Amino acid sequence: MSNYHIKHLEEYYQVYRKSVRNPEVFWEEIAEEHFMWRKKWDNVLSWDFTKPEVKWFEGAKLNITENCIDRHIYTRGDKTAIIFEPNNPNEDAQHITYRQLHDKVCRFANVLKEKGIGKGDRVCIYLPMIPELAISVLACARIGAIHSVVFAGFSSSALATRVKDCDAKMVITSDGSYRGSKTIDLKGIVDDALNDCEGVESVLVAKRIHSEINMKEGRDHWLEPLLEEAYHDCVPEIMDAEDPLFILYTSGSTGQPKGMVHSSGGYMVYTGYTFKNVFQYRENDIYWCTADIGWITGHSYIVYGPLANGATTVMFEGVPSYPDYGRFWQIVEKHKVTQFYTAPTAIRALAKEGVEHVENHDLSSLKVLGTVGEPINEEAWHWYDDNIGKRKAPIVDTWWQTETGGIMITPIPFATPTKPTYATLPFIGIQPALMDEQGQEIKGNQVDGRLCIKFPWPSMARTIWGNHQRYKDTYFSAFENKYFTGDGALRDEVGYYRITGRVDDVVIVSGHNLGTAPIEDAINEHPAVSESAIVGFPHDIKGNALYGYVILKETGESRNHDNLRKEINQLITEQIGPIAKLDKIQFTSGLPKTRSGKIMRRILRKIASNDTANLGDTSTLLNPDCVQEIMDGVL
Ligand code: WT7
Fold it and tell me: Which positions fall inside the AMP-dependent synthetase/ligase domain (predicted)?
């Protein structure tokens, strides 16, 4: 029996039991046999969730890029590591072999060094889905610089917030990006952001759309000539297992985004191991995850997990709807994709367009389908199963988070029988717990509660950059000695988990995690607004959409409400990005509040969702009258 590659349900249960009975022995074996270390650890695990402090493979030395690149050169140097599929289907795809990837990453790493970047420095990467994005991520890892990738759909002020929070010394971007039929002026966005960021010494600019842009003398440099001149080999920086590998921001229910800090050793082991099993990756498979590398899904399951396994990973620059709704399936056919991993929102959007976009493509290469980012509804699950997998490719509904670094609850294809809308069983080594509101663990099956994890796993985030207290408060304070996920879940009669959604003030819109507070802050900056509250409501395609209740400073008909709505969404676009725009904005004279002044979002959520049958007792509110007003004005 191989603990590294699980193939049957029985094997899953056996390995699972082993991994929870004796986690240290288990993870030591996985780490030792399947990864390359410059020095072994002194201690497999030490942890204390009260501080909280977690260390895996303490004392070990490694460089993750040696695991993701160098070691494959001897066995599969001419194998394709990355297939780049451009936005425009008429532009040729690029196949980058492991040997070429080594060359490119080393050159890039040398450019970083030449520009003064060293171990521990933060580098912010704001790039579209072009090869330079994966290469720059790996180049940072090569020299021990901490990368912080910011999704290139975020606005300049969201970018500035992130650059400043981690005090980045460098930004890597491109002249612009292609997105379907549009081009986006990325460099202009970076320039705006950097007006406000003094710590940034240099900006590297990749050429993608060949647009006219401003290059600031002394600060901005075109990437290509630097890469050409750079030396093609670079000795990897040897890192401690616990040295930070990257920071990735995720929104919180309040205030500033949280810079989740991930480790070098534990993150590598867990993403590598999950990738192999969750996608049942075999040599010569062609794996495609449609996420953007700006999100954790892309970090773990486009770059690090696949490359650690010597896999071929597809990077797609474009969108599912361009030039038409068959684009995904055309790519699957073209590259003979074997594993396909996407989000429920994409599945729903494509299902709506009809099967004719699917039917004219040969999808017979597909062996495993995956979904991630939000709960998948039954209808979308079946559409995916029937039309894409033709009921032959198992669907892995993978639940995890930016904070968890890797997949936590998931079927193992061909081993775990799937069940629509269920993420099914905890992955090897993961110990979930459902908690009641009194803080007690709910044992047994057919129960639901708040989802916690009660034992550390190798890829968990170690802290929030610059704010360990917030890390403790957010994840380790709600339930004693447990990591709290922010999600609710139920466990069925056989122990399968179904994630029911967020139980905090985070709304998942089209698979994007959005905190309501930062959006409210943006709206409240509008001079006409005095107060606002955002909630999520169900949406056919996006899963959830945002509903805003807004109180104006001056009531009456003096302002055009439609214009105000536009201005509010414009402000949100500027401060956060278009993904956070509100679908509906209702103006009201009051918001339901408790006597202590806290907005009762539960009531607002119900009204926005047209679920007003059981609003509960509203008479104890500070201002019960406003509830009727809001119900009468609901959009
Ligand atoms: C939140 C994390 C890490 C993947 C990308 C999102 C929701 C994620 C599922 C799933 C139901 C899911 C949860 C989670 N979520 N996957 N398979 N079923 N819900 O990462 O932006 O950190 O968001 O996404 O609510 O807490 P993220």
Answer: 71-462
Q: Would you say the CB of residue 373 lies under 6 angstroms from ligand 1? A: yes
Of 66, 428, 499, nearest to 274 by C-alpha is 428
Q: How far is the CA of 450 from the centre of ligand 1 (A)?
A: 14
Cis? peptide before 375, omega within 30° of 0 = no
Rounded to the nearest 5°, which phi and psi values hold at 168? -70, 140
Per-residue model confidence as pLDDT tens digits over 236-253: 999 999 999 999 999 876
Q: Which two tokens stand for residue 457?
A: 């796993």
Ligand 1 site, residue 506, Cβ cutoff 6 A: no
Four-point Cα dihedral 395, 397, 402, 405, nearest 10: -70
Block residue for tokens 């725009």: 581
Q: Which atom of ligand 1 is nearest to the CA of 513?
A: 21
Among protein residues, the one with the nearest Cα to ligand 1's atom 5 is 373
Asked if residue 602 belongs to a domain, the reply is yes
pLDDT digits (tens, 9 = 90+) for 245-282: 999 999 876 678 999 999 999 999 999 999 999 999 99
For ligand 1, atom 8, name the residue with the nearest CA. Answer: 373
Task: State the distance from the centre of ligand 1 to the C-alpha of 377, rounded, in angstroms.
Answer: 14
CATH number of the domain at 614, please.
Answer: 3.30.300.30
Altogether, the residues listed in the chain come to a count of 635
Measured distance CA(596)–CA(534) in Å, rounded: 19
Structural domain for 602, as ranges: 506-632
Contact residues for 445 (Cβ-Cβ < 8 A; gap 6+): 491, 492, 493, 494, 495
Q: Are 85 and 331 in contact (CB under 8 A)?
A: yes
Kindly state whether residue 585 falls inside one of the protein's structural domains.
yes
With a 6 Å cutoff on the Cβ, whether 300 touches ligand 1 is: no
Q: ∠88-339-341 over CA atoms, to 5°? A: 70
Nearest to 487 by CA among 444, 433, 567, 431: 433
Residue 321 covered by a domain: no
- Say if residue 344 is preceded by a cis peptide, omega within 30 of 0: no
Contact 44, 28 (CB under 8 A): yes
Cα of 399 to ligand 1 centre, how many Å?
6
Q: How far apart are CA 413 and CA 33, in angstroms?
A: 23
Atom 13 (ligand 1): residue with closest C-alpha?
Answer: 374
- Specify the number of domains making up the chain: 1
If you average pLDDT over every residue of the chain, what do you get?
A: 95
CB 438 within 8 A of CB 425: no
Distance 497 CA to ligand 1 centre (A): 14
Query: Relative to the CA of 398, which ligand 1 atom is closest?
Result: 17
Phi, psi of 406 (to 5 degrees): -145, 175
- Whether 601 is in a domain gets the answer yes
pTM assigned to the model: 0.93
Joined together, the tokens standing for residue 338 give 């074997």
- pLDDT category, 593, cuts 50, 70, 90? confident
